[in-house]
Every structure is written in structure tokens, then in C-alpha cells.
Design brief:
single chain, 195 residues, mainly beta, Jelly Rolls, 2 domains, eight-stranded antiparallel beta sheet, 16 strands, 59% strand
């Protein structure tokens, strides 16, 4: 098993652990090497919705508080793409039932595609994002009157018309390395792995 500890985006020490047969993973080596970072992003449409929605492509919107959308993605972060105007309301976003963020789709000017970064640096893997429409933005009441805000979320076939985005960052170890330990070092590190 390799564990990378990054000093910056392009340099890391890679610690190599191997099982010892007794349930422990023991440190067998460590090298410092340059890393190439390859960020990627991709969009998709939501998987499901609940509550009252207007579904005219590409600018779908929830009109009822507590209406929801849900989507799954594989990656290390996520973002939303929405329409935004002076009728926009507030979404509460929860990823994996743990990470929470509030975003507003209100804008003083019309934005056909507004990108909202939700979370970066999530553990690499499968994730679930759930958005719950909370109604009017308390800092920016909708121009159409109290209680009439819209929870915008893009939906369509074009990349810019899909509401759910995922970030995925992968790293490639470059050739050339520097040992992080002296060869005669007696330092030992181990951890117990139980499933």
C-alpha cells in the first residue's frame, strides 16, 4: 500500500507499507518524487427529484420548499451548474450525508450558466449529493415576491446544460526519486488493519 504526503501540488513523499502476516502494515520504504497532477471535470444530469418542479430544459427549477434532487458521482469533488436571476432561491447541499453547504441561485443579473463549487478534496470514490430547496434567499428576496423563489438547476444534453459536476484529480508519479530515509535507519512505523 502506498500513501502519498504532498508538500505542494507537484511534490510528495510516497510511503510504502507491506503486510507482515500478523495484521500489521509495516513501513518498508519512502521516496520523495515529483508528481504530475491531472485535474478533470465532467457533468451529468441529476438522477432523481422529489417535490414540485418546473422541467423546461435546460433551466429546471424547484418551486416548493423541501423539494429535492439527488445524484451520484465518482470523484474528489463536486459542483452545480444553475441558471441564476433575481428570482433565485437557496439550496442546502449535502454530500454523503456528512458535508453540508448552502448555495444561492439569486443574481442581480441573468446568468445562463452559473457554476457553484460545492466541495473539493473529497476522498476519491463514489459519492452521493442531495440538494434540498430551502426557498427564498434571506439576503436577496425574489423580485417576484416573498415565497416565489426558484431553486434553479440545469438539465439537458449539452455539457453546460447538465446540473451536476464532478471533479476528479489523479496523480502520476514521475521518474526520478530521492530516498526519504537513510538506508541504515532503524525507524519503524506500522499500523494495524482490521476490516
Amino acid at each position: 500500500m502506498d500513501i502519498a504526503v504532498f508538500y505542494n501540488e507537484a511534490e510528495a513523499t510516497i510511503y510504502t507499507f507491506e503486510p507482515d502476516g500478523n495484521g500489521w502494515y509495516r513501513l518498508r520504504g519512502a521516496v520523495t518524487r515529483m508528481m504530475s497532477v491531472y485535474p478533470d471535470k465532467e457533468t451529468k444530469n441529476r438522477d432523481s427529484i422529489t417535490g414540485v418542479w418546473s422541467t423546461n430544459d435546460p433551466n429546471h427549477y424547484a418551486t416548493e420548499a423541501e423539494a429535492t434532487f439527488e445524484a451520484s458521482f465518482y470523484g474528489t469533488g463536486c459542483f452545480l451548474q444553475t441558471y441564476a436571476d433575481d428570482r433565485g432561491g437557496v439550496w442546502e447541499i449535502v454530500v454523503d450525508g456528512v458535508y453540508t453547504k448552502t448555495i444561492s441561485t439569486w443574481s442581480p443579473i441573468v446568468q445562463n450558466t452559473k457554476v457553484h463549487s460545492v466541495f473539493e478534496n473529497l476522498p476519491e470514490g463514489n459519492h452521493t449529493i442531495v440538494g434540498t430547496f430551502k426557498g427564498d434567499d434571506p439576503e436577496h428576496p425574489p423580485s417576484s415576491g416573498a415565497g416565489t423563489s426558484r431553486g434553479w438547476l440545469k438539465y439537458g444534453t449539452l455539457t453546460t446544460d447538465k446540473g451536476i459536476g464532478r471533479y476528479y484529480t489523479h496523480y502520476v508519479q514521475e521518474t526520478g526519486l530521492v530516498s526519504a530515509f537513510e538506508s541504515a535507519s532503524r525507524k519503524e512505523f506500522a499500523f494495524l488493519c482490521t476490516l
